[in-house]
Amino acid sequence: MTALPNYETDNPSAYEWTDKAFDLLVATKLRASIVKRPGGVHVAEARGDCPRCEHDVDFSQQLSAPLPGKSGAGSKHHYPAGTRRIRNY
Question: What value does the mean pLDDT take over residues 41-50?
Fold first, then answer.
């Protein structure tokens, strides 16, 4: 059986991981970007060395958030929370 990596469980949101990720970005061992896909969908992507375990990471997350206004809660057009796409102006 393959041994599992040694994960940080005491404080997984510690600033040390942000600091290490920044160092990896500067060293071009980690790449991060916001990509606009067809239909205007924005996606955050990260690829390269994991700041915690140094294994390869390939992360992709669609960016979305509920928006107030014409399509927000209480309007005649209602969309479930998280279904509206973020727009960059």
Answer: 91
